[in-house]
């Protein structure tokens, strides 16, 4: 009887340790995936900020150039504004078709990307 009690206690302890280890592994993997996603978002934010300033100064330059060509500040900057409005409307039209899908696919790829350790673990189970 004592052996059976020890067996069940040992099995319970092993199972408890296993579940705790699996939960720890899950948290580590979630932290790794979140870290990768955060790194991608930070890189994207830096690129967007640089592009914003490049566009800002290029737009000012183009606005003043168009103002000289047309002879009026209002006409030059107005033409540039109309151009940006048309580009904005085009962006709104293609956003759902291309850009949203790209963002969703990128997030899914980051979260479900297998690490080398996961690939090795899967190959161990296959054998």
User: What do the pLDDT scores average to?
Assistant: 85
Largest sheet report: none
Report the sheet-strand fraction: under 5%
Low-confidence stretches: none
Order of helices and strands: HHH
Q: What is the domain tally? A: 1
Radius of gyration: 28 Å
Structural class of the secondary elements? mainly alpha
Q: Helical element count?
A: 3
Tell me what you see in this structure.
The chain is mainly alpha-helical and 127 residues long. It has one domain (2-115). Helix content is 94%, strand content 0%. It has three helices and no strands. It has helices at residues 2-70, 73-112, 116-126. It is rod-shaped, with a radius of gyration of 28 Å. The chain starts with a helix and ends with a helix.
How is this fold's topology laid out?
Elements: H1 2-70, H2 73-112, H3 116-126
Helix pairs in contact: 1-2
In short:
By secondary structure, the chain is mostly helical. Helices cover 94% and strands 0% of the residues.
Structural features:
rod-shaped, mainly alpha, 94% helix, 127 residues, 3 helices
